[in-house]
Amino acid sequence: MIGNYPLHLMILVLLWGYIYTGWSLMGRLGMVSFGHGAFMGIGAYTVVMLWNHFGLSPWLGAPAALALTAAVALVIAYPCFRFKIVGHYFALVTLALSEVTRLVITAMRDVTGGSLGATPNGALTEGRSVAIGALQFSDKWVWLAIIFAFWLLGLWVWRLVDRGMGRLALQAISEDEEAAASIGIHVTRAKLQVTLVSALMTCTGGILYAQYQLYVNPDTVSGIAISLQMVFGVIAGGMFVMLGPTVGAAFTLLLAEGLRLAFGNKYPALDTTIYGAMLVLFIIFMPKGILGALLDLVRRPRRAS
Amino acid sequence: MFLQVSKLTKRFGGFTAVSDVSFEVAEGEILGLIGPNGSGKSTTFNLIAGALKPDAGSVRFRGDEVGGLPAYRVAHAGIGRTYQIPRPFKKLSLLENVALAAFYGANSRLSREKAFELAKDSLKLVGLQETKVEGLGASALKKLELARALATQPKLLLADESLGGLDHAEMDGAADMLARIRAERGVTIVWVEHIMGVLMRVVDRCVVLDHGVVIAQGKPADVAKDAKVIEVYLGTDAFA
Ligand SMILES: Nc1ncnc2c1ncn2[C@@H]1O[C@H](COP(=O)(O)OP(=O)(O)OP(=O)(O)O)[C@@H](O)[C@H]1O
Ligand SMILES: [Mg+2]
């Protein structure tokens, strides 16, 4: 029997693995977004707020969260793509989106509980371990099953994108938008499609995170820190191979847990600071990430022989 | 008229790169668009292909206005273009470069398999092997440009071939290639060159640009005798 703590870690690795996989759909194709914290935050908060204030089941809250995420993603991404805001400028615009989302959640403290966060009203009365309507389960095995399913779904989407002509098109776009357009590629639409898929995956990740943890906080589901964690995790794991983002999720989680065990909560922003520093090191010394570098190591001798 | 360019004008700041340019292209012909460096040939191509928006004038292609449309829609309308300085997608293989053009040129209405099949045909037509883009020489990159444009199955090909650094044999090869493309695909071609020699052998008619203005057009033999054209080209080796 696996203890609760390892089970908890497994769930988180798969959940973050799913979210990172969603992020990589864009990141590997030249769209480095620091805005995914916004999509995660919108997912988590929309569902919890609708449940707490209107008693609306997460099953109905989720479509609302997805619709809101899609709207925000389109409103931000369309002008970016239309006016060819790419590279660092795209990163900056999306960074602002994350931060604005965090600030809005924090500022609406009467509704959201502000920086103290919020807890979904409990639906698990005595003796009940399952509340399907409220999407609350006390059994971690149930969560493992649910999140494993989403993780598999994420890998399936990755594969679908990877094998389609759309991936080639986006790769071409990341190199030369004008030449891509000259062969008939609708550049703005191609970018919007993958952005929507990526944002919606992240949004569902946020919903699952909120329902699993039964706690949301603007700093842990939105803002710069969480966006940086995603970028760092994916780059550390490797964004060009299917399991790279999941390896990155395991790596960031172990790092964060290790720091927490070593230092407790003495230095609250320590992990973010370390992410930032390590991100630079990874980009310089291991641009393909841990998994990418390992695969290269395994493949190279084989080719030589 | 197959392609009708009327009074096309493009300014960059206060500088008029293309000024009131008008010409026509009949279906099935090879038209040479010539003129010295900086005379506005590539800019004219960019205006027709939708890479630049004209400040004035119109481009009618098979009866429809395409002037000012975004580039991808011009491609769907059946106009393919090559770049003077090749712009391959370096992260993709040669075959992927061309297959992408086949797929999106047909507005995603093809299967992936069919797109790769068409790509192989186009590569064969220009005589390229399926390899990596890295390490390709100048003349192979020009061929890739052609293959990619042809893979979109254009009815009109805008070939910006003017590239210094090709020797006589290579230029002859390029001329034969365009003639063969027309013969095999029935594609109408506008061919941009700044050197007149080889081009004159293959084109049906020419349009001569100078400082963004059309200074002559007609049969190659007549254009070569035109006083204004001779003056523009005087002292250059362009007739070589
Ligand atoms: N994007 C631009 N911005 C400003 N000026 C431009 C731009 N594109 C072209 N020009 C200018 O417009 C003029 C015409 O350029 P164009 O490239 O059309 O000439 P060309 O006939 O193709 O010359 P070449 O034979 O050297 O290729 C040149 O003076 C060029 O410097
Ligand atoms: Mg030119």
Describe the protein's architecture and organization.
The complex is a heterodimer of chains A (305) and B (240). Chain A is 76% helix and 1% strand. With 305 residues, chain A is mainly alpha-helical. In chain A, a hairpin with a 4-residue loop joins strand 1 (130-131) and strand 2. In chain A, helix 1 (4-27) packs parallel to helix 6. A 6-stranded mixed β-sheet of chain B has the order 6-7-8-3-9-10, sandwiched between helices. Chain B has a 4-stranded antiparallel β-sheet with strand order 2-1-4-5, covered by helices on one side. In chain B, helix 3 (94-105) packs across helix 4 (112-126) and helix 3 (94-105) runs parallel beside helix 5. The mean pLDDT of chain B is 91. Chain B has 2 domains: 3-78 and 155-239, P-loop containing nucleotide triphosphate hydrolases (Rossmann fold, 3-Layer(aba) Sandwich), CATH 3.40.50; 89-153. Chain B is α/β, with parallel strands linked by helices. Chain B has helices spanning 41-49, 71-77, 94-105, 112-126, 138-151, 168-185, 197-202, 220-225, 227-233, and strands at 3-12, 15-25, 30-34, 56-61, 64-65, 79-81, 156-160, 188-193, 205-210, 213-218. Chain B contains 9 helices and 10 strands. The chains are: A mainly alpha (305), B alpha/beta (240). The site of adenosine-5'-triphosphate has 13 residues of chain B, from helix 1.
List the defining traits of the structure above.
heterodimer, A: 305 residues, 1% strand, B: 240 residues, alpha/beta, Rossmann fold, 6-stranded mixed sheet, 10 strands, binds adenosine-5'-triphosphate, binds magnesium ion
How is this structure best summarized?
The complex is a heterodimer of chains A (305) and B (240). Chain A has 305 residues and is mainly alpha-helical.
Class from secondary-structure proportions of chain A: mainly alpha
Describe the biggest sheet of chain A? 2 strands, antiparallel
Count the E strands of chain A.
2
Which range best describes the helical content of chain B: under 10%, 10-25%, 25-40%, 40-55%, 55-70% or over 70%? 25-40%
Number of domains of chain B: 2
- The helix/strand class of chain B is alpha/beta
Mean pLDDT of chain B: 91
CATH class of the largest domain in chain B: Alpha Beta
Strand content of chain A: under 5%
Ions, cofactors and other ligands present here are: adenosine-5'-triphosphate, magnesium ion
- The secondary-structure element order of chain B is EEEHEEHEHHHEHEHEEHH
What spatial form of chain A do the alpha-carbon principal axes imply?
A: globular
